[in-house]
From TrEMBL:
Gene3D superfamilies: NAD(P)-binding Rossmann-like Domain (3.40.50.720)
Signal peptide interval: none
One Pfam assignment: ThiF
Name this protein carries in UniProt: Rv1355c family protein
Start and end residues of each THIF-type NAD/FAD binding fold domain: 119-253
UniProt-listed InterPro entries: ThiF/MoeB/HesA, ThiF_NAD_FAD-bd, Ubiquitin-activating_enz
The organism's place on the tree of life at top rank: Bacteria
Amino acid sequence: MRELEEHIKQQQPETDNYTPVFYRLGKAEEYTALTSLLSSNPHIRVHDHIVSQLKELIKISNPTKRLTPEEYEQHLAAYVGEQTLAEIGVWVYYPWADRVVHIVDEEDFIALRTSRNQHKIMKEEIERLRTKKIGVIGLSVGGSIALTIAMERVCGELRLADFDKIELTNMNRIRTGIHNIQVSKAVVAAREIAELDPFIKVRCFLDGATAQNLDEFFTGGGNLDVLVEECDGIDIKILSRIKAKALQIPVVMDTNDRGMVDVERFDLEPDRPLLHGFIPADLDMERLKGLSDAEKLPIFRPMVALDDMSARMKYSLSEIGKTITTWPQLASSVVLGGAAVTDTCRRILLDQYKNSGRYYVDFEQIFV
């Protein structure tokens, strides 16, 4: 036991690092930096499958022709030219995973990553979406949304806000490994996105969304194009909408029950009442902070359509503090929300959907 305890004490504390490091070996100083990193850390795994990526790139560039192995080699030689294969593309270091991955550089990477989106998303739309910024507040439900947005490449920048850390009880709906217990939910989501697509810019707000940082969250580095609001706190739920309305930024929310998605188009309807008018006009935000959960419930109820929730969710709410500690969330509902919100955000950003309202994808009503 003593040996195990000593080994545990010697472990390095988990960092909040979620930003990959890029090395382009055509630059002598970056070649030196990478080789120094690898020689100093021989445990780092190196993944070099650049040739398979280049062959894929050649394939999608010649969709009308079935190339022979010889033709692939000719195209490959033309692409590489006087460079070495090691100088092609970029080497990406993931410090939290002790991995270096060799990939094609940004333009070719995006072409490959989005090639099977076409023509459900047109090429000019893919380019347009690259310029967009989406903010996600609350990463229990929002983590699935953020990852789906990244997978579909619906934006070029994501801002993630959550103060909470992964607990084992979260892992009925957050897709991550048990080694991430006590790691920030935002960091876990950001790392997964970076490992999927290191060229998507991700910023994490590890204190969550607060009255103090909302300005930076919404406008730092350019205004958000869409806010996805998935937080539990009623005060931030309201404050974030006040800010979104002032900046004319649309808000999308998934309630994780009956597939309900709520949309507020403050960009098209700047005078629209917050949450469709379900927030009392005379609400005292300072007084709200001092209320208990039970006292907040009458205010919270219409905001998230508690009266229209499924029978089992209503029953669950009555059991909080008795047989359960908080409301339940299922992986199937969280994944559905990721799909529904991503699709909604994409169509908002491409001017294909212009409405506000509440919409349901209720499996119990559809599959009967």
